[in-house]
Amino acid sequence: MSLALVCMSHSPLLDYASPPAEVTAAVDAAFDQARSFVRDYDPTLVVSFAPDHYNGFFYDLMPPFCIGYEALGVGDYGTTPGPLDVPTEVAERLAQWVADRDLDVAISRRMEVDHGAIQPLEILFGGIDTVPTIPVFVNGVAKPFVRMSRVRALGEAIGSFLSTLTSERALIIGSGGLSHDPPVPQWATATDAQRALLLNGRNPSPEARDARQQRVIDTAQAFTAGTATIRDLNPEWDQALMKVLASGDLSPIDEMNPAQMAADAGNSAHEVRTWVAAFAALGASGPYELETSFYHPIKEYIAGFGVMTARSQPV
């Protein structure tokens, strides 16, 4: 059984912002490398760890983790709406496997996913239903946050399940981060209107979605100009984390705590939980080897932007 991994930043601003030409070219080259890596691996199954941005999961019921038995994209920021090709029976067995290892995980028979889950599928495969995909939601925006050791345990449990699928070539995707602090309302300081969105903002009108997206676009422009009030990117923090992930020893990550993560790298730096879960899943089958690694702090995308690929080593 072989496992492969792609971890990548996502940004709703990929098609709405214009970094310098050399930066765009570097990102495109990193995406091309990742696509080539995936094409050579030719996966038969994808497990996608992704967060949500109050498009599918809300404070009316916010689990730390959720495995999707069925899923559909909500179509935010021009991403593809509609159903993913989820192998329901395999997802059900995965959830039971995780539960049997003393990890409490929610399930959804109608998971709604946004650009955080959809962008990597579009970038790597050109569509959202080209390869059977099990979506795994990892909360990266809403307090309280579970300990990082719990995130690592989730990844290890899922990786151990994938190792039993001897007829599959499983690709693990981690989508999110790295350092970034986009204008996502925090419950403690939100207005009444913002709290209504955080509590249950499902199925917004086209006008409401456009207005929400425009606020992010406007913030990115202000951030690039140096006039936004959001936290700055933290390349040192990003690259230190990527170094740990590449090392194969993820134990130092257990010491990270939510408050310090937000202070150092922004409120949405919690999305790196998807990377941690993905690398833990890859490592569950044994040693792995990093194949490519890209990083650049990109203010136009409000993101410390990274792409990593890795593959398990034959035992």
- Could you list the spans in which at least 5 consecutive residues all have pLDDT below 50? none
Instruction: Give Rg in angstroms.
Output: 18 Å
- Based on CA inertia axes, which overall geometry fits? globular
Q: Label the CATH architecture.
A: 3-Layer(aba) Sandwich
Q: Give, in order, the helices and strands.
A: EHEEEEHEEHEHEHHHHHEE
CATH superfamily (homologous) name: LigB-like
The CATH class, by name, is Alpha Beta
Distance between the termini: 10 Å
Count the beta strands.
Answer: 11
3D architecture notes:
With 315 residues, this protein is an alpha/beta fold. The chain has a single domain (3-312), classed as 3-Layer(aba) Sandwich (Protocatechuate 4,5-dioxygenase, Chain B). The protein is built from nine helices and eleven strands. It has helices spanning 21-41, 88-100, 115-125, 148-162, 192-200, 206-225, 235-247, 258-265, 272-283, and strands at residues 3-8, 45-50, 65-68, 71-73, 82-83, 106-108, 111-113, 133-138, 170-175, 288-298, 303-312. The strands form two sheets. The chain has an eight-stranded mixed beta sheet, sandwiched between helices. A hairpin with an 8-residue loop joins strand 4 and strand 5 (82-83). The N and C termini lie close together (10 Å).
Keywords:
eight-stranded mixed sheet, single chain, 39% helix, 315 residues, alpha/beta, Protocatechuate 4,5-dioxygenase, Chain B
